[in-house]
Protein backbone atom coordinates (compact mmCIF):
# COMPACT_ATOMS: atom_id res chain seq x y z
CA UNK A 1 0.00 0.00 0.00
CA UNK A 2 1.01 3.62 -0.41
CA UNK A 3 2.66 5.04 2.70
CA UNK A 4 2.40 8.63 3.87
CA UNK A 5 3.51 10.69 6.86
CA UNK A 6 2.29 13.96 8.33
CA UNK A 7 4.97 16.64 8.36
CA UNK A 8 4.16 17.31 12.02
CA UNK A 9 5.71 13.91 12.79
CA UNK A 10 9.22 15.10 11.88
CA UNK A 11 11.55 17.83 13.12
CA UNK A 12 13.01 20.67 11.11
CA UNK A 13 11.80 23.00 8.37
CA UNK A 14 9.22 21.88 5.83
CA UNK A 15 11.93 21.38 3.22
CA UNK A 16 13.93 19.22 5.62
CA UNK A 17 10.85 17.18 6.46
CA UNK A 18 10.02 16.56 2.80
CA UNK A 19 13.59 15.52 2.10
CA UNK A 20 13.68 13.12 5.06
CA UNK A 21 10.37 11.53 4.09
CA UNK A 22 11.49 11.03 0.49
CA UNK A 23 14.88 9.60 1.40
CA UNK A 24 13.29 7.14 3.80
CA UNK A 25 11.04 5.88 0.99
CA UNK A 26 7.61 7.37 1.70
CA UNK A 27 5.17 7.84 -1.18
CA UNK A 28 3.44 10.94 0.12
CA UNK A 29 2.96 13.43 2.94
CA UNK A 30 0.26 15.26 4.83
CA UNK A 31 1.09 18.97 4.96
CA UNK A 32 0.49 20.37 8.42
CA UNK A 33 -0.67 23.97 8.15
CA UNK A 34 1.87 25.32 10.66
CA UNK A 35 4.68 23.92 8.53
CA UNK A 36 3.32 25.71 5.47
CA UNK A 37 2.86 29.01 7.30
CA UNK A 38 6.43 28.93 8.59
CA UNK A 39 7.94 28.08 5.21
CA UNK A 40 9.47 30.77 2.97
CA UNK A 41 8.41 28.71 -0.06
CA UNK A 42 5.16 29.43 -1.85
CA UNK A 43 2.59 26.63 -2.17
CA UNK A 44 3.64 26.24 -5.80
CA UNK A 45 7.29 25.86 -4.80
CA UNK A 46 6.38 23.32 -2.12
CA UNK A 47 4.37 21.38 -4.69
CA UNK A 48 7.31 21.39 -7.08
CA UNK A 49 9.76 20.38 -4.34
CA UNK A 50 7.55 17.46 -3.33
CA UNK A 51 7.18 16.36 -6.96
CA UNK A 52 10.93 16.53 -7.50
CA UNK A 53 11.37 14.27 -4.47
CA UNK A 54 8.78 11.80 -5.76
CA UNK A 55 6.22 12.69 -3.09
CA UNK A 56 2.51 13.31 -3.46
CA UNK A 57 0.70 15.68 -1.11
CA UNK A 58 -2.11 13.49 0.14
CA UNK A 59 -3.81 15.75 2.68
CA UNK A 60 -3.84 19.30 4.00
CA UNK A 61 -4.62 19.73 7.67
CA UNK A 62 -6.19 20.78 9.91
CA UNK A 63 -9.30 22.94 9.70
CA UNK A 64 -10.77 23.36 13.18
CA UNK A 65 -14.04 24.47 14.78
CA UNK A 66 -16.17 24.83 11.67
CA UNK A 67 -19.36 22.77 12.19
CA UNK A 68 -22.37 22.96 14.55
CA UNK A 69 -21.98 26.71 15.03
CA UNK A 70 -24.33 29.68 15.02
CA UNK A 71 -24.80 30.85 11.44
CA UNK A 72 -22.67 33.97 11.70
CA UNK A 73 -19.69 32.00 12.98
CA UNK A 74 -20.23 29.27 10.39
CA UNK A 75 -20.20 31.89 7.63
CA UNK A 76 -16.78 33.01 8.84
CA UNK A 77 -15.71 29.37 8.69
CA UNK A 78 -16.79 29.13 5.05
CA UNK A 79 -14.67 32.15 4.19
CA UNK A 80 -11.70 30.46 5.85
CA UNK A 81 -12.42 27.31 3.91
CA UNK A 82 -12.43 29.16 0.58
CA UNK A 83 -8.90 30.42 1.29
CA UNK A 84 -7.77 26.96 2.30
CA UNK A 85 -9.17 25.46 -0.92
CA UNK A 86 -7.15 27.98 -2.90
CA UNK A 87 -3.98 27.01 -1.01
CA UNK A 88 -4.74 23.33 -1.60
CA UNK A 89 -5.18 23.92 -5.31
CA UNK A 90 -1.77 25.57 -5.41
CA UNK A 91 -0.27 22.69 -3.40
CA UNK A 92 -1.82 20.10 -5.68
CA UNK A 93 -3.87 18.24 -3.09
CA UNK A 94 -7.62 17.67 -2.90
CA UNK A 95 -8.40 16.45 0.65
CA UNK A 96 -8.88 18.73 3.66
CA UNK A 97 -8.96 17.33 7.19
CA UNK A 98 -11.72 18.89 9.30
CA UNK A 99 -11.60 18.10 13.04
CA UNK A 100 -14.70 17.85 15.18
CA UNK A 101 -15.43 21.10 16.99
CA UNK A 102 -13.88 21.79 20.41
CA UNK A 103 -15.10 25.40 20.67
CA UNK A 104 -17.34 26.39 23.59
CA UNK A 105 -19.58 28.00 20.95
CA UNK A 106 -20.34 24.62 19.33
CA UNK A 107 -23.95 23.46 19.53
CA UNK A 108 -24.88 19.89 20.49
CA UNK A 109 -27.04 19.35 17.43
CA UNK A 110 -26.23 16.55 14.97
CA UNK A 111 -28.70 17.86 12.46
CA UNK A 112 -27.03 21.28 12.40
CA UNK A 113 -23.57 19.67 12.19
CA UNK A 114 -24.66 17.52 9.24
CA UNK A 115 -26.29 20.46 7.42
CA UNK A 116 -23.25 22.71 7.82
CA UNK A 117 -20.77 19.98 6.85
CA UNK A 118 -22.88 19.34 3.76
CA UNK A 119 -22.64 23.01 2.81
CA UNK A 120 -18.88 22.95 3.43
CA UNK A 121 -18.56 19.83 1.25
CA UNK A 122 -20.56 21.51 -1.54
CA UNK A 123 -18.15 24.45 -1.46
CA UNK A 124 -15.23 22.03 -1.55
CA UNK A 125 -16.72 20.16 -4.49
CA UNK A 126 -16.93 23.37 -6.49
CA UNK A 127 -13.15 23.63 -6.16
CA UNK A 128 -12.55 19.93 -6.87
CA UNK A 129 -11.87 19.24 -3.21
CA UNK A 130 -13.32 16.94 -0.57
CA UNK A 131 -13.69 17.00 3.23
CA UNK A 132 -12.42 14.26 5.56
CA UNK A 133 -14.23 14.69 8.89
CA UNK A 134 -12.38 13.42 11.96
CA UNK A 135 -13.73 12.88 15.48
CA UNK A 136 -11.20 14.23 17.97
CA UNK A 137 -11.10 12.15 21.14
CA UNK A 138 -11.62 15.40 23.08
CA UNK A 139 -14.23 16.89 20.73
CA UNK A 140 -16.82 19.00 22.53
CA UNK A 141 -19.84 17.07 21.27
CA UNK A 142 -18.42 14.64 18.70
CA UNK A 143 -15.59 12.51 20.09
CA UNK A 144 -16.06 9.03 18.61
CA UNK A 145 -15.73 7.78 15.05
CA UNK A 146 -19.18 6.16 15.03
CA UNK A 147 -20.79 9.46 16.03
CA UNK A 148 -18.86 11.23 13.27
CA UNK A 149 -20.04 8.60 10.79
CA UNK A 150 -23.69 9.15 11.75
CA UNK A 151 -23.28 12.85 10.98
CA UNK A 152 -21.50 12.19 7.67
CA UNK A 153 -24.13 9.66 6.67
CA UNK A 154 -26.90 12.10 7.58
CA UNK A 155 -25.24 14.85 5.54
CA UNK A 156 -25.21 12.55 2.50
CA UNK A 157 -22.82 14.60 0.38
CA UNK A 158 -20.41 12.81 -2.00
CA UNK A 159 -17.55 15.20 -1.14
CA UNK A 160 -17.87 14.50 2.58
CA UNK A 161 -16.30 11.42 4.18
CA UNK A 162 -14.42 10.30 7.26
CA UNK A 163 -10.86 10.47 8.41
CA UNK A 164 -10.25 7.59 10.82
CA UNK A 165 -7.42 8.09 13.32
CA UNK A 166 -6.26 5.07 15.32
CA UNK A 167 -5.35 7.17 18.35
CA UNK A 168 -8.72 8.88 18.57
CA UNK A 169 -10.47 5.52 18.24
CA UNK A 170 -8.36 3.36 20.55
CA UNK A 171 -7.50 5.93 23.23
CA UNK A 172 -11.18 6.18 24.12
CA UNK A 173 -11.62 2.43 24.17
CA UNK A 174 -14.03 2.52 21.22
CA UNK A 175 -14.70 -0.80 19.51
CA UNK A 176 -13.14 -0.57 16.03
CA UNK A 177 -15.35 -3.42 14.82
CA UNK A 178 -17.96 -0.78 14.05
CA UNK A 179 -15.87 0.35 11.08
CA UNK A 180 -17.36 -2.63 9.22
CA UNK A 181 -20.58 -0.60 8.90
CA UNK A 182 -18.83 2.20 7.01
CA UNK A 183 -18.52 1.86 3.20
CA UNK A 184 -14.87 1.96 2.16
CA UNK A 185 -15.49 4.77 -0.31
CA UNK A 186 -16.66 7.00 2.56
CA UNK A 187 -13.37 6.53 4.44
CA UNK A 188 -11.37 9.28 2.79
CA UNK A 189 -8.24 8.93 4.90
CA UNK A 190 -6.65 6.67 7.53
CA UNK A 191 -4.20 8.11 10.07
CA UNK A 192 -2.19 5.81 12.29
CA UNK A 193 -0.51 6.38 15.64
CA UNK A 194 0.34 4.09 18.53
CA UNK A 195 0.82 5.17 22.14
CA UNK A 196 1.93 3.69 25.46
CA UNK A 197 -1.03 2.79 27.64
CA UNK A 198 -1.33 5.63 30.14
CA UNK A 199 -3.92 6.97 32.56
CA UNK A 200 -3.93 10.68 31.72
CA UNK A 201 -5.89 13.42 29.98
CA UNK A 202 -6.44 12.25 26.42
CA UNK A 203 -5.46 15.61 24.87
CA UNK A 204 -2.08 15.65 26.65
CA UNK A 205 -1.64 11.98 25.87
CA UNK A 206 -2.18 12.69 22.19
CA UNK A 207 -0.06 15.83 22.01
CA UNK A 208 3.04 14.39 23.70
CA UNK A 209 3.08 10.59 23.71
CA UNK A 210 1.99 9.30 20.32
CA UNK A 211 4.50 6.95 18.71
CA UNK A 212 4.88 4.80 15.64
CA UNK A 213 2.91 1.54 15.29
CA UNK A 214 4.60 -1.22 17.24
CA UNK A 215 6.13 1.14 19.79
CA UNK A 216 3.07 1.45 22.03
CA UNK A 217 0.23 -0.67 23.38
CA UNK A 218 -2.57 -0.30 20.82
CA UNK A 219 -3.69 -3.03 18.42
CA UNK A 220 -3.01 -1.01 15.30
CA UNK A 221 -2.78 -4.09 13.06
CA UNK A 222 -6.27 -5.20 14.11
CA UNK A 223 -7.71 -1.78 13.29
CA UNK A 224 -5.99 -1.71 9.90
CA UNK A 225 -7.39 -5.14 9.00
CA UNK A 226 -10.90 -3.96 9.82
CA UNK A 227 -10.56 -0.74 7.80
CA UNK A 228 -9.12 -2.51 4.76
CA UNK A 229 -11.99 -5.00 4.88
CA UNK A 230 -14.36 -2.09 4.11
CA UNK A 231 -12.64 -1.55 0.76
CA UNK A 232 -10.56 1.45 1.82
CA UNK A 233 -7.84 1.94 -0.77
CA UNK A 234 -6.11 5.13 0.40
CA UNK A 235 -2.66 5.38 1.98
CA UNK A 236 -1.53 4.27 5.40
CA UNK A 237 -0.50 7.56 6.92
CA UNK A 238 1.34 8.34 10.16
CA UNK A 239 0.35 11.32 12.27
CA UNK A 240 2.57 11.47 15.35
CA UNK A 241 2.76 14.17 18.01
CA UNK A 242 5.78 13.32 20.14
CA UNK A 243 8.17 15.55 22.08
CA UNK A 244 11.19 13.36 21.31
CA UNK A 245 10.49 13.09 17.58
CA UNK A 246 10.18 16.88 17.38
CA UNK A 247 13.78 17.19 18.60
CA UNK A 248 15.39 14.16 16.97
CA UNK A 249 17.10 14.18 13.59
CA UNK A 250 14.42 13.97 10.90
CA UNK A 251 16.23 11.46 8.69
CA UNK A 252 16.52 8.67 11.25
CA UNK A 253 12.99 9.36 12.52
CA UNK A 254 11.60 9.01 8.99
CA UNK A 255 13.38 5.67 8.52
CA UNK A 256 11.99 4.45 11.84
CA UNK A 257 8.54 5.62 10.73
CA UNK A 258 8.67 3.70 7.47
CA UNK A 259 10.00 0.61 9.25
CA UNK A 260 6.96 0.74 11.51
CA UNK A 261 4.61 0.72 8.51
CA UNK A 262 6.47 -2.14 6.82
CA UNK A 263 6.20 -4.17 10.03
CA UNK A 264 2.56 -3.15 10.37
CA UNK A 265 1.78 -4.39 6.87
CA UNK A 266 3.22 -7.76 7.85
CA UNK A 267 1.20 -7.88 11.09
CA UNK A 268 -1.99 -6.89 9.29
CA UNK A 269 -1.47 -9.52 6.60
CA UNK A 270 -1.01 -6.99 3.80
CA UNK A 271 2.54 -7.75 2.72
CA UNK A 272 4.72 -10.69 3.86
CA UNK A 273 8.33 -10.39 4.94
CA UNK A 274 11.02 -13.04 5.44
CA UNK A 275 9.98 -14.88 8.60
CA UNK A 276 11.76 -13.88 11.81
CA UNK A 277 14.75 -16.05 12.68
CA UNK A 278 14.48 -15.29 16.38
CA UNK A 279 17.85 -15.43 18.18
CA UNK A 280 18.25 -18.17 20.77
CA UNK A 281 21.17 -16.74 22.72
CA UNK A 282 24.38 -14.75 22.67
CA UNK A 283 27.35 -15.99 20.65
CA UNK A 284 29.65 -13.22 21.88
CA UNK A 285 29.90 -9.62 22.99
CA UNK A 286 32.67 -7.38 21.64
CA UNK A 287 34.33 -4.60 23.61
CA UNK A 288 36.41 -1.99 21.81
CA UNK A 289 39.34 -0.62 23.80
CA UNK A 290 42.34 1.27 22.45
CA UNK A 291 44.10 0.29 25.68
CA UNK A 292 42.94 -3.28 26.34
CA UNK A 293 44.71 -3.73 29.70
CA UNK A 294 41.90 -2.48 32.00
CA UNK A 295 39.38 -4.71 30.22
CA UNK A 296 41.56 -7.80 30.01
CA UNK A 297 42.60 -7.42 33.66
CA UNK A 298 38.94 -7.37 34.61
CA UNK A 299 38.22 -10.42 32.43
CA UNK A 300 41.10 -12.31 34.06
CA UNK A 301 39.69 -11.39 37.46
CA UNK A 302 36.33 -12.80 36.39
CA UNK A 303 37.97 -16.08 35.44
CA UNK A 304 38.06 -15.68 31.65
CA UNK A 305 40.91 -17.11 29.59
CA UNK A 306 42.21 -15.78 26.32
CA UNK A 307 41.57 -18.64 23.89
CA UNK A 308 42.05 -17.18 20.42
CA UNK A 309 43.30 -14.34 18.32
CA UNK A 310 42.33 -12.95 14.97
CA UNK A 311 45.09 -13.51 12.44
CA UNK A 312 44.52 -10.26 10.58
CA UNK A 313 43.14 -7.83 13.14
CA UNK A 314 43.93 -7.02 16.78
CA UNK A 315 40.97 -8.86 18.33
CA UNK A 316 41.28 -11.47 21.10
CA UNK A 317 38.71 -14.04 22.15
CA UNK A 318 38.20 -14.51 25.89
CA UNK A 319 36.00 -17.36 27.07
CA UNK A 320 34.57 -19.04 30.15
CA UNK A 321 31.82 -21.63 29.95
CA UNK A 322 29.44 -20.46 27.22
CA UNK A 323 30.35 -16.80 27.74
CA UNK A 324 32.60 -15.35 25.03
CA UNK A 325 33.98 -11.81 25.01
CA UNK A 326 35.93 -10.30 22.13
CA UNK A 327 38.36 -7.50 22.96
CA UNK A 328 39.10 -5.32 19.94
CA UNK A 329 42.13 -3.11 20.60
CA UNK A 330 42.42 -1.87 17.03
CA UNK A 331 39.17 0.10 17.00
CA UNK A 332 39.56 3.72 18.03
CA UNK A 333 37.93 4.05 21.43
CA UNK A 334 35.64 6.89 22.43
CA UNK A 335 36.70 9.64 24.77
CA UNK A 336 35.10 7.98 27.79
CA UNK A 337 36.94 4.66 27.41
CA UNK A 338 36.11 1.08 26.41
CA UNK A 339 32.60 0.44 25.16
CA UNK A 340 30.45 -2.44 23.96
CA UNK A 341 30.55 -2.24 20.18
CA UNK A 342 29.01 -5.50 18.88
CA UNK A 343 26.87 -8.48 19.85
CA UNK A 344 26.87 -11.88 18.18
CA UNK A 345 23.42 -13.45 18.20
CA UNK A 346 22.95 -17.21 18.00
CA UNK A 347 20.52 -17.42 15.10
CA UNK A 348 18.81 -20.55 13.69
CA UNK A 349 18.92 -19.22 10.11
CA UNK A 350 21.48 -16.40 9.86
CA UNK A 351 20.83 -15.61 6.18
CA UNK A 352 17.07 -15.43 6.74
CA UNK A 353 17.64 -13.09 9.67
CA UNK A 354 19.80 -10.85 7.49
CA UNK A 355 17.20 -10.78 4.68
CA UNK A 356 14.50 -9.80 7.14
CA UNK A 357 16.70 -7.09 8.62
CA UNK A 358 17.34 -5.62 5.18
CA UNK A 359 13.64 -5.64 4.31
CA UNK A 360 13.00 -3.65 7.50
CA UNK A 361 15.57 -1.01 6.56
CA UNK A 362 18.27 -2.11 9.00
CA UNK A 363 21.61 -0.64 7.90
CA UNK A 364 23.71 -3.50 6.50
CA UNK A 365 27.33 -3.21 7.62
CA UNK A 366 29.97 -3.48 4.88
CA UNK A 367 32.50 -6.27 5.30
CA UNK A 368 36.00 -6.87 4.05
CA UNK A 369 36.42 -10.57 3.34
CA UNK A 370 38.99 -12.96 1.90
CA UNK A 371 38.39 -16.43 0.54
CA UNK A 372 38.80 -18.34 3.81
CA UNK A 373 36.55 -16.07 5.90
CA UNK A 374 33.42 -17.55 7.42
CA UNK A 375 30.49 -15.58 5.94
CA UNK A 376 28.74 -13.48 8.56
CA UNK A 377 26.00 -10.91 8.10
CA UNK A 378 25.75 -7.88 10.34
CA UNK A 379 23.45 -4.88 10.72
CA UNK A 380 23.56 -1.78 12.89
CA UNK A 381 21.01 -1.24 15.67
CA UNK A 382 19.65 2.30 16.21
CA UNK A 383 22.28 3.04 18.87
CA UNK A 384 25.08 1.94 16.54
CA UNK A 385 25.69 -1.45 18.16
CA UNK A 386 26.68 -3.99 15.51
CA UNK A 387 24.53 -7.12 15.49
CA UNK A 388 26.00 -10.25 13.93
CA UNK A 389 23.83 -13.20 12.95
CA UNK A 390 25.88 -16.29 13.64
CA UNK A 391 25.96 -19.96 14.48
CA UNK A 392 28.24 -21.64 17.02
CA UNK A 393 29.16 -25.23 16.18
CA UNK A 394 25.80 -26.10 14.67
CA UNK A 395 25.80 -28.65 11.81
CA UNK A 396 24.82 -27.29 8.43
CA UNK A 397 25.80 -23.68 9.16
CA UNK A 398 29.14 -21.83 8.89
CA UNK A 399 30.74 -21.75 12.34
CA UNK A 400 32.22 -18.38 13.26
CA UNK A 401 34.52 -20.03 15.82
CA UNK A 402 36.35 -21.89 13.05
CA UNK A 403 38.13 -18.65 12.20
CA UNK A 404 40.03 -18.40 15.48
CA UNK A 405 43.69 -19.22 16.02
CA UNK A 406 44.08 -20.93 19.38
CA UNK A 407 47.11 -21.45 21.58
CA UNK A 408 49.09 -19.52 24.17
CA UNK A 409 51.52 -17.62 21.95
CA UNK A 410 49.77 -14.43 20.91
CA UNK A 411 52.89 -12.33 20.55
CA UNK A 412 52.92 -12.78 16.79
CA UNK A 413 49.39 -11.42 16.45
CA UNK A 414 48.40 -8.43 14.36
CA UNK A 415 49.61 -4.93 14.95
CA UNK A 416 47.45 -3.20 17.52
CA UNK A 417 47.52 -0.06 15.45
CA UNK A 418 45.41 -1.58 12.68
CA UNK A 419 42.42 0.51 11.77
CA UNK A 420 38.83 -0.21 12.75
CA UNK A 421 36.78 -2.67 10.74
CA UNK A 422 33.29 -3.97 11.33
CA UNK A 423 34.47 -7.48 10.52
CA UNK A 424 36.81 -7.55 13.47
CA UNK A 425 34.66 -10.16 15.21
CA UNK A 426 34.40 -12.51 12.29
CA UNK A 427 37.45 -13.08 10.17
CA UNK A 428 39.66 -15.51 12.06
CA UNK A 429 41.74 -18.40 10.70
CA UNK A 430 41.90 -21.73 12.54
CA UNK A 431 45.13 -23.48 13.43
CA UNK A 432 44.58 -27.08 12.42
CA UNK A 433 47.27 -28.73 14.55
CA UNK A 434 46.19 -27.19 17.86
CA UNK A 435 42.93 -28.08 19.63
CA UNK A 436 40.73 -25.06 20.20
CA UNK A 437 39.50 -24.64 23.77
CA UNK A 438 36.42 -22.56 23.10
CA UNK A 439 34.73 -22.91 26.51
CA UNK A 440 37.16 -23.30 29.42
CA UNK A 441 35.40 -24.12 32.68
CA UNK A 442 35.09 -21.59 35.50
CA UNK A 443 32.61 -20.21 38.03
CA UNK A 444 30.75 -18.34 35.29
CA UNK A 445 28.67 -20.40 32.87
CA UNK A 446 27.26 -18.05 30.23
CA UNK A 447 25.63 -14.73 29.41
CA UNK A 448 22.37 -14.01 31.22
CA UNK A 449 21.59 -10.69 29.54
CA UNK A 450 23.13 -7.66 27.89
CA UNK A 451 21.98 -4.15 28.82
CA UNK A 452 22.43 -1.23 26.44
CA UNK A 453 21.81 2.40 27.39
CA UNK A 454 20.18 4.09 24.42
CA UNK A 455 20.63 7.65 23.19
CA UNK A 456 17.67 9.62 24.53
CA UNK A 457 16.02 9.99 21.11
CA UNK A 458 16.39 6.34 20.05
CA UNK A 459 14.65 4.44 22.85
CA UNK A 460 11.28 3.84 21.16
CA UNK A 461 13.05 3.26 17.85
CA UNK A 462 15.22 0.60 19.51
CA UNK A 463 12.18 -1.18 20.93
CA UNK A 464 10.55 -1.34 17.48
CA UNK A 465 13.82 -2.37 15.82
CA UNK A 466 14.50 -5.29 18.12
CA UNK A 467 10.87 -6.41 18.04
CA UNK A 468 10.35 -6.19 14.28
CA UNK A 469 13.82 -7.01 12.97
CA UNK A 470 14.92 -9.65 15.51
CA UNK A 471 11.52 -10.96 16.59
CA UNK A 472 12.18 -10.29 20.28
CA UNK A 473 9.22 -9.78 22.60
CA UNK A 474 9.09 -6.48 24.50
CA UNK A 475 8.13 -6.56 28.17
CA UNK A 476 6.55 -3.76 30.16
CA UNK A 477 8.61 -0.60 30.53
CA UNK A 478 9.90 0.01 34.06
CA UNK A 479 10.95 3.32 35.61
CA UNK A 480 13.92 3.01 37.95
CA UNK A 481 14.97 5.65 40.47
CA UNK A 482 18.35 7.21 39.73
CA UNK A 483 19.93 9.82 42.04
CA UNK A 484 19.46 12.40 39.28
CA UNK A 485 16.12 11.37 37.76
CA UNK A 486 14.27 8.36 36.40
CA UNK A 487 16.02 5.59 34.53
CA UNK A 488 13.66 3.94 32.04
CA UNK A 489 14.22 0.27 31.26
CA UNK A 490 12.56 -2.26 28.96
CA UNK A 491 13.51 -5.90 28.55
CA UNK A 492 13.27 -7.79 25.24
CA UNK A 493 13.41 -11.60 25.10
CA UNK A 494 13.32 -14.40 22.57
CA UNK A 495 10.52 -16.93 22.30
CA UNK A 496 12.03 -19.27 24.92
CA UNK A 497 13.02 -16.46 27.27
CA UNK A 498 16.50 -16.07 25.78
CA UNK A 499 18.36 -14.09 24.74
CA UNK A 500 17.58 -11.37 27.22
CA UNK A 501 18.34 -7.86 25.99
CA UNK A 502 17.64 -4.86 28.21
CA UNK A 503 17.23 -1.39 26.70
CA UNK A 504 17.82 1.49 29.10
CA UNK A 505 17.25 5.21 28.85
CA UNK A 506 19.30 7.43 31.13
CA UNK A 507 17.59 10.32 32.98
CA UNK A 508 18.60 13.30 30.81
CA UNK A 509 18.88 14.04 27.06
CA UNK A 510 22.61 14.69 27.46
CA UNK A 511 23.50 12.64 30.56
CA UNK A 512 26.75 12.38 32.40
CA UNK A 513 28.85 9.76 30.56
CA UNK A 514 28.69 7.52 33.62
CA UNK A 515 24.96 7.07 33.06
CA UNK A 516 25.48 5.91 29.46
CA UNK A 517 27.04 2.63 30.47
CA UNK A 518 26.45 -0.80 28.97
CA UNK A 519 26.79 -4.02 30.86
CA UNK A 520 27.08 -7.74 30.35
CA UNK A 521 25.42 -10.00 32.93
CA UNK A 522 27.12 -13.36 33.41
CA UNK A 523 25.46 -16.44 34.92
CA UNK A 524 26.74 -18.58 37.77
CA UNK A 525 25.42 -21.50 39.78
CA UNK A 526 27.04 -20.21 43.00
CA UNK A 527 27.05 -16.43 43.45
CA UNK A 528 29.10 -16.57 46.66
CA UNK A 529 31.86 -18.73 45.19
CA UNK A 530 31.96 -16.61 42.03
CA UNK A 531 32.19 -13.36 43.97
CA UNK A 532 34.93 -14.73 46.23
CA UNK A 533 36.86 -15.92 43.16
CA UNK A 534 36.63 -12.44 41.64
CA UNK A 535 37.73 -10.73 44.84
CA UNK A 536 40.61 -13.17 45.31
CA UNK A 537 41.81 -12.44 41.78
CA UNK A 538 42.04 -8.75 42.64
CA UNK A 539 39.02 -7.52 40.67
CA UNK A 540 36.94 -4.81 42.30
CA UNK A 541 33.28 -5.42 43.07
CA UNK A 542 30.83 -2.57 43.60
CA UNK A 543 30.54 -1.56 47.26
CA UNK A 544 26.97 -1.58 48.58
CA UNK A 545 26.00 0.54 51.65
CA UNK A 546 25.32 -1.17 54.97
CA UNK A 547 21.88 0.48 55.06
CA UNK A 548 20.79 -1.74 52.19
CA UNK A 549 21.56 -4.91 54.13
CA UNK A 550 19.79 -3.67 57.26
CA UNK A 551 16.68 -3.17 55.16
CA UNK A 552 17.16 -6.57 53.49
CA UNK A 553 17.34 -8.19 56.93
CA UNK A 554 14.04 -6.56 57.86
CA UNK A 555 12.28 -7.79 54.69
CA UNK A 556 13.53 -11.36 54.37
CA UNK A 557 14.78 -14.21 56.52
CA UNK A 558 18.21 -15.62 55.66
CA UNK A 559 20.20 -18.60 56.89
CA UNK A 560 22.70 -17.65 59.60
CA UNK A 561 25.75 -15.93 58.14
CA UNK A 562 24.26 -15.47 54.65
CA UNK A 563 23.58 -11.76 55.00
CA UNK A 564 27.04 -11.15 56.45
CA UNK A 565 28.54 -12.84 53.39
CA UNK A 566 26.39 -10.77 51.05
CA UNK A 567 27.44 -7.58 52.86
CA UNK A 568 31.11 -8.54 52.63
CA UNK A 569 30.95 -9.31 48.90
CA UNK A 570 28.46 -6.66 47.78
CA UNK A 571 25.83 -9.19 46.71
CA UNK A 572 22.30 -7.86 46.21
CA UNK A 573 19.14 -9.94 46.56
CA UNK A 574 15.58 -9.93 45.25
CA UNK A 575 12.66 -12.32 45.52
CA UNK A 576 9.52 -12.37 43.37
CA UNK A 577 5.95 -13.18 44.40
CA UNK A 578 6.37 -16.81 43.31
CA UNK A 579 9.43 -17.41 45.47
CA UNK A 580 11.96 -17.05 42.65
CA UNK A 581 15.25 -15.56 43.81
CA UNK A 582 17.83 -13.30 42.18
CA UNK A 583 21.35 -12.92 43.60
CA UNK A 584 23.63 -10.46 41.82
CA UNK A 585 26.72 -8.31 42.17
CA UNK A 586 28.61 -5.87 39.95
CA UNK A 587 32.17 -5.13 38.96
CA UNK A 588 33.61 -1.66 38.82
CA UNK A 589 33.01 0.19 35.56
CA UNK A 590 35.81 0.31 33.01
CA UNK A 591 35.19 3.16 30.58
CA UNK A 592 31.53 2.61 29.72
CA UNK A 593 31.36 -1.11 30.47
CA UNK A 594 30.80 -3.16 33.59
CA UNK A 595 29.88 -6.76 34.33
CA UNK A 596 27.15 -8.22 36.51
CA UNK A 597 27.24 -11.72 38.00
CA UNK A 598 23.80 -13.25 38.49
CA UNK A 599 22.31 -16.41 39.96
CA UNK A 600 18.66 -17.16 39.27
CA UNK A 601 16.73 -19.75 41.26
CA UNK A 602 13.08 -20.78 41.42
CA UNK A 603 12.15 -19.47 37.98
CA UNK A 604 12.94 -15.81 38.70
CA UNK A 605 12.41 -13.85 35.46
CA UNK A 606 13.18 -10.27 36.41
CA UNK A 607 16.37 -8.24 36.57
CA UNK A 608 16.55 -7.08 40.17
CA UNK A 609 14.70 -3.82 39.53
CA UNK A 610 14.08 -3.39 43.27
CA UNK A 611 17.82 -2.95 43.74
CA UNK A 612 18.46 -0.66 40.78
CA UNK A 613 18.45 2.57 42.80
CA UNK A 614 21.09 1.19 45.16
CA UNK A 615 23.30 0.04 42.29
CA UNK A 616 22.92 3.29 40.35
CA UNK A 617 23.78 5.38 43.41
CA UNK A 618 26.80 3.21 44.15
CA UNK A 619 28.03 3.60 40.58
CA UNK A 620 27.60 7.37 40.81
CA UNK A 621 29.90 7.37 43.84
Topology:
Layout: E1 3-6, H1 14-24, E2 28-32, H2 33-37, H3 43-52, E3 56-63, H4 71-91, E4 95-99, H5 110-126, E5 130-134, H6 145-155, E6 160-165, H7 166-170, E7 187-192, H8 202-209, H9 220-229, E8 236-238, H10 250-267, E9 281-288, H11 293-301, E10 305-309, E11 315-320, E12 323-328, E13 339-346, H12 350-359, E14 377-380, E15 386-390, E16 444-454, H13 459-468, E17 473-474, E18 478-482, E19 485-493, E20 500-505, E21 518-524, H14 527-536, H15 546-555, H16 562-569, E22 572-575, E23 581-586, E24 593-601, H17 612-620
Parallel strand pairs: 1-2, 1-8, 2-3, 3-4, 4-5, 5-6, 6-7, 7-8, 9-12, 13-15, 16-20, 21-24
Antiparallel strand pairs: 9-13, 10-11, 11-12, 14-15, 16-21, 17-19, 18-19, 19-20, 22-23, 23-24
Helix pairs in contact: 1-10, 3-4, 4-5, 5-6, 10-13
Number of helices: 17
Q: Could you tell me the strand content as a percent range?
A: 15-25%
What would you call the shape?
A: elongated
Classify the secondary structure makeup into a structural class.
Answer: alpha/beta
Instruction: Return residue spans where pLDDT drops below 50 for at least 5 consecutive residues.
Output: 408-436
Termini distance? Answer: 54 Å
Rounded to an integer in angstroms, the radius of gyration calculated over CA atoms is: 29 Å
Average pLDDT metric: 90
**Number of beta-strand segments:** 24
Share of helix among residues?
25-40%
Biggest β-sheet: count, sense, barrel? 9 strands, mixed
Amino acid sequence: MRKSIATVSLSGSLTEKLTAAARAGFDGVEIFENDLLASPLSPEEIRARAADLGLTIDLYQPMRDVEALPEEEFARGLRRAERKFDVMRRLGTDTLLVCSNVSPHAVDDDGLAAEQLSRLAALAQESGMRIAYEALAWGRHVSTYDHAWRIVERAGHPALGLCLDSFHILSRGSDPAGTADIPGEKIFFLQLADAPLMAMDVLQWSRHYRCFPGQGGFDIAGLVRLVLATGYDGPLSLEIFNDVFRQAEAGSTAVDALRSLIALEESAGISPLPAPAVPTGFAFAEIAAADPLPVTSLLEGLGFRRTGRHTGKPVDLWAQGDARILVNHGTGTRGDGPFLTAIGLETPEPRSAARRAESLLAPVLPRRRVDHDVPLDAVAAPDGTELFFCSTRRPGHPDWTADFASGTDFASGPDATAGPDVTAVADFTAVADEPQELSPAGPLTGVDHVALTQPWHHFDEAVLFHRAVLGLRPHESVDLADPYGLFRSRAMTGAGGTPRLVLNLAPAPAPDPRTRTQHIALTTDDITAAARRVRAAGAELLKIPANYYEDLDARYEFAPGTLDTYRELGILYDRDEHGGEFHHCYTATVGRVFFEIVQRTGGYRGYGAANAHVRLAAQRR
